[in-house]
């Protein structure tokens, strides 16, 4: 949903490694390689053809068809004031991590303010986990959120996803509450 812009696709400098997350495929499968990349960079997505973006989304949300991913990606790019996505590339230009963040104006569990930046998804290929990639990606999301006027970054994880809980804690998130959702079909 975001239109391409030179500002949105400019690589962000990477501070000293201190960040991480999850996936299950080899680095060679992480998506197309960029040519000419000399140093590891984080790049904000500006086009659905962003190298590695679709491949990393497919690893994070494998139940979703590529066509559905591409439709969502286009929708996100069309609303740059509401959505941002960042891909981390290693020094060889291979996509090794992804973070997607959105501005939520509805109620966000555990948040004290509105609007709130919400970490919609984060994924790091297995070989790059526990090396600071997730921390760098979350920092990029935080910078974007601050630039959008948000003072909180919220997230969620399934109750049984204890590795995600640990990652969130390591990244400085504080658990605020646990919720069980219910539904009923009216008759």
TrEMBL record:
Pfam families per the UniProt record, alphabetical: Acetyltransf_1
SUPFAM superfamilies: Acyl-CoA N-acyltransferases (Nat)
PROSITE patterns per UniProt: GNAT
Domain of life of the source: Bacteria
Keywords: Acyltransferase, Transferase
Keyword Transferase belongs to the record: yes
Region (Disordered): 1-34
Keyword tRNA processing found: no
UniProt GO MF annotations: acyltransferase activity, transferring groups other than amino-acyl groups
Residue ranges of domain N-acetyltransferase in the record: 40-187
PANTHER family reported for this sequence: ACETYLTRANSFERASE (PTHR43420), PEPTIDYL-LYSINE N-ACETYLTRANSFERASE YIAC (PTHR43420:SF51)
Name this polypeptide is given: GNAT family N-acetyltransferase
Lineage, top ranks: Bacteria, Pseudomonadati, Pseudomonadota, Betaproteobacteria, Burkholderiales
